[in-house]
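Dissemination and training. As part of the outreach component of the grant, students in the summer workshop were shown how a complex can be specified as a set of sequence lines and then modelled as a single object. The example used during the hands-on session is reproduced here so that future cohorts can follow it. Participants entered these lines:
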Amino acid sequence: MTVISMKHVSKNYSRIAALTDLTVKIEENVITGIVGRNGAGKTTLLKMIAGFQKATKGELRVFDENPFRSLLVSANSIYIDDAMSYPGSMKLHELLDEFNRFYANWNEELAVRLMEYFSIPLNSRHRFLSKGKRSTFNAIVGIAARCPLTIFDEPTTGMDTAARNDFYRALLKDYIAFPRTILLSSHYIDEMKDVLEDLLVIHRKRIRYHGSISDLQEAHLSLRGSSEQLSGSTLGKIIVSKTTRGLQEEWIVENDFSDAERAELNRQGITNTTVSLNDAYLALTEQPRGGIDDVFNA
Amino acid sequence: MSLTHRTMGEVVKQQFLFKLRSNAAVITVLFVMQAVVWGLMIGGANTGLSMSTFELRWNLITNDGVVIASLLWALVVGVILTTPGQRNASFTYVSSPVTENLANFCFFGLAAIIAGVTTVLSGSVMKLVVFMKDGNSIIETGGLIAAPLDFFSRIVVMILYTLLIMVVVYTFMLFVQMNRLMIVPIVLLVLLSTKSGVFDLLGIEGNMGTLFDFFYKESSFWLFLVKTGVVMVIVSILSFFPSSRIEVKQS
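and obtained this result:
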């Protein structure tokens, strides 16, 4: 079942375009990573899906309804970011009680256990927590709500490494027990790669890629060898980036190599492997690996 | 995972209760304001009249200060419930613009009842204190026992004034949030309908009457009820226009 569908969706703030001509479908019970550079439009996209903001153009449907002003979408989705608004007068256990009243699938026991595990006192107030603990509390809310559509926008901001790892592990465990559609946005693609099934890359306010992680990795090839070897073997190929690694060079190229061409690369002693997810993402978003070296080498 | 279907009534009720719990301090502020003003007013204003043969001195004690404090509080409550912080907090939980608006009106209703009852009762307590301090007093309005209908109509009128201010200010603020330029026509409309407004500034006799006279000088209780009721319903309906267009979490 399709949970989110967009047809030529655009969003403008006044006359400034935030997102342009998005067409995509996100299926039920899939964890999709939403990635893109700063200002690419990730948060705007997630807020439109949550129903907080209205698409300027195009058709956006969530659970087959326009999410803006939709009670159905609100009752079946939760949006977690690092700027959650809670009443300052209420303690954390009171906030959890409110979530319990509003969300049908809310698991109070799980929320309290996670609060204990992350050493967040239930009697504290959200504004008195450290930045990392605030994010952890928000993340706990997102997991315990067990909403059919769970949206995390930069959920790990301020968390330490251990808390980040624990969050992704907790999310994955709860997802396996109670599958749901999850959208997860982060700048740290490597740390969330283990929980992701699909990736939606937004670049320059448009969708640059939507599909499985393995397909994205296989779409690029990393070649290692001398500059001369690589130049000779990549004639007619699209080179995404070039990096010098000691005596060798590493080039990332778009992978349209045939089996025969791959065999030829092996014969010439050029190491050719599929790229890491991070490298594939960097390639898609035109962030040259090692590009900063060029600044100093100029 | 199957979808949850919530009725509008359920969500409005939950949002209303949430607003009560999260805005308890707002009600406390009303009591504090009323108590402070009550304390200041109970002293009264000493006035005297002296002739060659006699001297007349009297002490005027009035509950008007508490009424004004409650109405000012109503104005602030109307503003507070339109702030982005309040709206974002509502949308942290299940909400839609319609349920948000309806829950706010429920909150206004209860807040107005509390303000109306406590304001009129503060007048009664004031009379009791004056009576116990100095039995020689002239009381302008009747109490619960002497004139129960009058007493309850005072409570209803106070509730309606408080509610009217909350709803009008709330709707005005929503329009301004939707588009800041809306402040111009709304302020012009208010100025045009008051004697001390644009007409006076331009030296022209206004014949629209005053906005305040429309309610304040109404001597019939039932007509007042109809007037405030109709105006509140119209303004409340108008408020759905901006509230359904304002986006959430814009920062």
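Chain B touches chain A through 34 residues (CB under 8 Å). Students were then asked to discuss how this feature might be tested experimentally.
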